[in-house]
Write a structure and sequence with these properties.
The chain contains 19 helices and four strands. It is mostly helical. The protein has a domain of 35 residues. The strands form two sheets. It has a two-stranded parallel sheet with strand order 1-2. Strands 3-4 form a two-stranded antiparallel ribbon. A hairpin with a 2-residue loop joins β3 and β4. α4 runs antiparallel to α5, α4 packs parallel to α8 and α9 crosses α14. The longest helix has 27 residues. The radius of gyration is 25 Å and the shape is globular. The protein starts with 37 loop residues before the first helix and ends in a 17-residue tail after the last strand.
Length: 527
Amino acid sequence: MTSIVTEEKQFSFPRLKTEGSLDRIEDWCVPVKQIYNQQDVGNFEKSVAIHNIKSCIFKICQLISKCEVPKGVLDDELVSFEDGHKKNGHKNGSGGTGASRGGGLNLPPPVSNQEDGNGGNGSGSKDATGSSDFSKNLKPEVKAVLDLIARLNQLIVETPILPGPRRYGNMAFRSWHDSLSEKIEGFFHNHLKIFYKYNNFDLFITELTHYFIGSFGSRQRLDFGTGHELSFLAFINALLMVDILNRDTITGVDILIIFAKYYDLVKRLILTYTLEPAGSHGVWGLDDHFHLIYILGACQFIDFTSMEENNTTTAATTTKTNTSTHEYYQHHPFPHHRNKIPSPSSILNPMALHKFRTSNLYFNSISFIRKVKTGPFNEHSPILYDISAVKTWDKVTKGMIKMYFVEVLSKFPVVQHFYFGNVLYPWKDFETGKPLPASTEASRDNLKEGDIELEEQMKEKEKSERLEKIKKASTGIVSRNEINIHKPPPPVFGTESQRVRGGGGAQYKRVSGNNDNVAVTKAPWAK
């Protein structure tokens, strides 16, 4: 397997390419849309923006290697799927989000101080485990980010769900988003400004705000997906690039605590407001809502720095890759305080999920799936089921990162919602520093009002002509072959019961005979 790291041998957080101090930068701007088609995705892959994102991912993976989420950070109640919790109505029969069936949900206690944001389920509060020991040694800037997340937890308490059908999302989520948009500037000033070393904080947050608000689902579509997860990564990376979070002193545990609290908040939003999956591939996708969380969780079980060294093209690599998890970790020991490392197949064991779901993000996410979905795991999550057969966590990690680059960072439906400013994530070529080509569709924003009206009239005329053809076809006046109607593609081979389907990297094969109802899936690297 080829190396996943192509640009940097020494992992480091990205730094802003600026001339002189950040104080001198005046061209901060509200991020704008630049990705309108697949060609723009190709330009995105050359950009400073994606370089900043990938560099951040690699450095985070290195820092969180061999680290646990401290006790008391993750809320076990949000991912408990045992019988006692199923009765609360967190699961539904269709495999969708559990909140659609109602039932109780333990939210964090109200924030006691509206100004500083302490309380809720943030840095200074007790969670479902009754422990808050992890907060004693937090760096002030890390605690500030957790207090910011705590304020958003409090907004859930302040924004109760609306009565009525909730299958496609509760409309109260829009009120929650409106409250966030209204208060976000004050939140930033209260929690982050003190750690910003420059004099243009208000300009800085004109770009930062977009990525933070975009981290918690779509107000319009009432959904949450990997694009929103990406937006939070961009937010954290922005704090690192301007040293609100100190690049030189932040630890893997600090990062895990921040992301753990973020994922707890998102799970509350999903359960409370019945948020739909955004752009889900159904069973053919990795997960309805998340992807990055699996990369982080897998990295907790490996030494990311040495992973590349262990991935050579020699015969020894093949032997090492095929060894058991137990044998592998005998040669790659973890700190003495850790328990035995579970194998990837342990995600299928409820006892293992219960043991590791509050210390590892991978197991935490699997446990959440078990909470909100019903039926056999191999049926509703076949890709994750396939990955459980992989021998070692280093191979899982490499596969997850490659899949993330392909299925998230290179997919138009996801990255079309990633916007670009002038400083944090500029639409510039990483090699040359020059602006990347603007999409021809983007130029439509600059058309004169009369041109736009003419364009709309032409579209309406084309639509009318098409409807007229369809009407004639229904009366037999014109052949249906004259109408451009998209038809489903023919089977790739064989009879109706012999076909291959794919989605999200999966392969599905059905063969006629006694085992006609057996589905066989494969993750891209689960060989």
